[in-house]
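Format is chain and fold; as here:
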Amino acid sequence: MQELNLTPTQTAIFFVVSAVILLVMILSKQTIDFVQDFNKACDDNEKACADLIKANEELRQTIIASRQGSYLQIEHH
């Protein structure tokens, strides 16, 4: 740091400020990664919900068809 003509105190402050800037950059990256992971989890959850709704409707239709089949068997006996 002699090329910049900094005193030892100024050098220490320079390193502290540099470390803080680096830390903020790292934490910002982690925050961005967290938000991206959270968004992916939300998308996955949305798809799972849609799949459950579809499966529920298919099950409902199966139950209705089964009941109708039972009624037809009873009527034929």
